[in-house]
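Let us practice reading a record.
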Amino acid sequence: MSLNLPDTSPPDESGEPAAGEYHSPAGPQRRTPGWRGLSRPGLVLLIGVAVAVAAAAAGIVLLVLPHSSAHTDRHSDAQRPGVPVSYSVSGHGTARITYARQDGTSRTFTAHLPWQQSATLAAGSTPRVTIVLGPDGGRATCALTLNGTPVQHATAYGTYGRATCATQSPAH
């Protein structure tokens, strides 16, 4: 920390102003530094750096925050057309089944086979049905249908056998 004390040294004999002084009609004057001891170029540099940091922070905030879908999508979720989906699992015995529901959540339960379920999912969603056989094993096949057209099937075999049927539904 430095103290700004007035210069009490005698003026230069040459008649030239000493460093940091200038002559005015009132006589020699001492140049005082700018804000908190900074010279004018230092102050300008400080302000420039502060503006650059603020602009960078604003850019980061805009990149990180989620964007409103109202500006990027022509349809909100409520206006998007639905896609009819049918899930089915064929086989014998029981299987643990997980499937995507209309509200976007998934449901897991154990069911006696055969099993089937229909739903209308939002366009652009991912219809999915997963099966897991129990300790007795066996064989079960899952199938996925979009708009009445079969799009995928898979078969699980053996003890704790697994199979998943999933696809991307059309965006519109």
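A brief commentary: The chain has a mean pLDDT of 77.
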